[in-house]
Design goal:
The protein has 222 residues and is mainly alpha-helical. Helix content is 80%, strand content 0%.
Length: 222
């Protein structure tokens, strides 16, 4: 997706949909991780290291996209420095001490840094993590990215892009049988089953709600 299309899509729906999915009175995706791990549900899950790593990977993917969006918004004059700083902090909480975190830090420390350079660094980190993470971590990371793709294209005029992302998600549902519960996979599959071209805005709204339901179920957030 081009930068112009991403800005257009995000402007149309980011605050109308993602702000509903993750409401202002709830912690951000990264901060929600702590709440998840402190909850009774997550305490049991934490005994399975793979499950915990999967939840963290889903959060990482979504926070990476949030940081990119915050950068695009700030560079376009429709975002705030506070949002930008918060999303960078969320991302750094995941990547601290990793080669990917060091890459972003080195870019942020550059003199006369441009927004395009920072966006390129986020893209590089996304590619590296997509290649590096395997098993449930890899599946959860790719699923988190795809959920964000779907949320950002669930808007009028973006149906072609949305249908492509929904097709990709179908493959992730199949791959996820080794890593997610039947309930979680059923919620994920429900996202792909909406008839986008026949139901207009109602279908787009349903996709946003279903995507949120999956994310909350996978992260164990009530």
């Amino acid at each position: 997706m081009t930068k112009a299309k991403l800005i257009a899509a995000a402007t149309l729906i980011l605050f109308a949909t993602i702000s509903t999915v993750f409401s202002a009175d709830s912690p951000g995706v990264a901060n929600r991780t702590s709440r998840v791990l402190d909850s009774g549900h997550a305490h049991a899950a934490a005994e399975n290291a793979k499950t915990t790593k999967g939840m963290l990977s889903l959060c990482l993917a979504m926070d990476l996209r949030y940081a990119k969006l915050a950068t695009i918004f700030l560079s376009s004059g429709i975002g705030s420095p506070e949002d930008f700083t918060r999303e960078l902090s969320n991302l750094e909480s995941h990547l601290s001490g990793t080669p990917e975190g060091e890459l972003i830090e080195s870019v942020l420390n550059k003199k006369d840094l441009t927004y395009l350079e920072l966006l390129a660094a986020f893209d590089t980190v996304e590619r590296k993590l997509t290649s590096k993470l395997t098993g449930e971590e890899g599946w959860a990371f790719r699923t988190g990215l795809k959920i964000m793709d779907i949320l950002l294209t669930a808007a009028p005029g973006m149906e072609t892009e949305l249908l492509g992302h929904l097709s990709d998600l179908e493959a992730l549902v199949v791959d996820g049988q080794a890593y997610a519960s039947e309930e979680e996979l059923a919620l994920l599959a429900a996202v792909t089953e909406t008839k986008v071209t026949n139901q207009g805005q109602a279908a787009l709204d349903r996709i946003v709600i279903q995507s949120s339901a999956f994310a909350d179920a996978y992260l164990g957030v009530a």
